[in-house]
Design a protein that fits this description.
five-stranded mixed β-sheet; 9 helices; alpha/beta; single chain; Peroxisomal Thiolase, Chain A, domain 1; four-stranded mixed β-sheet; binds coenzyme A
Length: about 325
């Protein structure tokens, strides 16, 4: 039987930085309020002519280079995004495949908001274990600044742009395989976090010009509570069903939405501060890109080593959630 292994990681953030002080000039807020309530200090913002696929390509190039797998051997690309280059088609994954010069690959996007990367991981795992694909590029890429309302202080302080990517490939060595991915969704919470305008749920001709803007809207306080509960339960479930103690986890990588959420979940699970990966201060919430960007951070600062166990834990609009137990298994390990 084929197993699926995480071979490499890469990430990219655009150059421009938007600080809390910058935001305080745009809406009624302050560095003190944002820092205290979210832990966020700054976020990166893509240039006007920089698209989600451009960010994804930069992250993918790093992941491919670090994977020891030839670009030509990639047989599938999945992109998790809620800010695609184009509203309906082509998918951002196909644009990325063209920009990378990949030729004939299976390519598609998935929409699972901040849980997107964990969903792509579960799909990649299933395709590889079934024997249908061998080397899959998964990308989480977001230009959230394009769907953020910079007049709404409840949301604009939270989000940023960026991308992360990984190569998942087939192995017959069970020791290096992804152990488990657990995903779920509950549509009854859809109104907590959504972009209500622009789709067939709100036909364009029924809207005035301003309402047509495809901006994110969020019930922040309610989302916060559901996030803490869901993220905590999700981890308990995946550890328990795989008979793994939390102490065996080297790096706990939760979705980076708000430091208070990360702290509450880490404490509820009894994780030490050394285990919990936190990058929210410098990137804000980059939705589907947040988890691979955080993994890339610990890879680039040298704290992620071959064979170490990652525990991923995501939560997002839909509502969606997902967790994964993933050993880091670069090819020369
Ligand atoms: N600056 C200053 N004041 C702000 C503000 C801002 N940017 N945003 C909201 N406020 C005000 C509110 O108007 C409210 O004022 P009031 O008491 O006079 O009515 C007060 O701060 C408290 O608002 P509340 O929404 O209860 O704050 P909070 O502590 O819940 O923090 C969030 C708001 C958005 C930071 C927080 O709810 C959050 O992070 N939620 C989850 C977000 C998330 O994870 N989303 C993505 C999921 S993938």
């Amino acid at each position: 039987m084929a197993y699926a292994a995480l071979r490499s990681i890469g990430a990219y953030v655009p150059q421009k930085i938007l600080t809390n002080d910058d935001l305080a000039k745009m809406v009624d807020t302050s560095d003190e309020w944002i820092s205290k309530r979210t832990g966020i200090k700054e976020r990166h913002i893509a240039a006007q002519d920089e698209t989600t696929s451009d960010l994804g390509v930069q992250a993918a190039l790093k992941a491919i280079e670090r994977s020891s797998i030839a670009k030509e051997d990639i047989d599938m690309i999945i992109c998790a995004t809620i800010s695609p280059d184009y509203f309906c088609m082509p998918s951002t994954a196909t644009v990325i495949s063209k920009k990378l010069g990949l030729g004939n690959v299976t390519a598609f996007d998935i929409s699972a908001a901040c849980t997107g990367f964990v969903y792509t991981l579960s799909i990649a795992k299933a395709f590889i274990e079934s024997g249908m694909k061998k080397n899959i590029l998964i990308v989480g890429a977001e230009k959230l600044s394009a769907i953020t309302d910079y007049n709404d202080r409840g949301t604009c302080i939270l989000f940023g742009d960026g991308a992360g990517a990984a190569i998942i490939s087939a192995t017959d060595n069970k020791q290096e395989a992804i152990i488990d991915v657990n995903t779920g969704a509950d549509g009854t919470y859809a109104d907590l976090l959504m972009t209500p305008n622009g789709g067939t749920g709100s036909p364009h001709d029924a809207l005035d010009g301003e309402a047509n803007a495809c901006f994110m809207q969020m019930k922040g306080n309610e989302t916060f509570k559901v996030a803490v509960r869901t993220l905590t339960n999700d981890v308990k479930e995946i550890l328990e069903s795989n008979s793994i103690e939390s102490s065996a986890v080297k790096h706990f990588v939760p979705h980076q939405a708000n430091y208070r959420i990360i702290k509450a979940v880490g404490d509820a699970l009894g994780m030490t501060s050394e285990q919990v990966v936190v990058t929210v201060a410098k990137y804000g919430n980059t939705s589907g890109a947040s988890i691979p960007m955080a993994i890339n951070d610990i890879y680039e600062n040298g704290s992620l080593k071959a064979g170490e166990l990652l525990l991923l834990d995501a939560f997002g609009g839909g509502l969606t959630w997902g967790s994964a137990l993933v050993p880091f298994s670069p090819i020369d390990s």
